[in-house]
Design a protein that fits this description.
The protein has 102 residues and is mainly α. The chain contains three helices and no strands. Helix 1 packs antiparallel against helix 2 and helix 1 packs antiparallel against helix 3. It is rod-shaped. The protein starts with 8 loop residues before the first helix and ends with a helix.
């Protein structure tokens, strides 16, 4: 029994585009989280200064994590597009070898 191999390059391209969009969304979330950390400590009053400092550190930490996740996902877009291009090239090459032209 022969295995049927197939790569849907349009779907792979769509995945790459979606990944790039998700990465951009995560970068926007990281920017908003970073902006939250710039709130004035005076709005918390004298008793809230310590709370504000801890909250700021936590928000900055989460913003870095979201930013790192966005950067990691951003690499999947070009990788997917490259894979789709490689599959299309391999398909064309195989067709040319079998028929002499594709």
């Amino acid at each position: 029994m022969l295995a049927r191999l197939f790569a849907d390059t349009d779907l792979i391209h769509a995945y790459g585009s979606a990944s790039s969009g998700h990465a951009a969304d995560l970068q926007a979330v990281a920017a908003r989280l970073t902006a939250l950390g710039t709130a004035s400590a005076s709005m918390f009053g004298p008793a809230g200064a310590r709370f504000h400092a801890v909250l700021t550190r936590a928000v900055e930490s989460e913003a870095r994590r979201v930013n790192d996740l966005g950067a990691a996902i951003a690499t999947s877009g070009p990788a997917a597009w490259g894979a789709a291009h490689a599959y299309a090239g391999a398909d064309a090459d195989a067709g040319n070898r079998l028929t002499g032209s594709w």
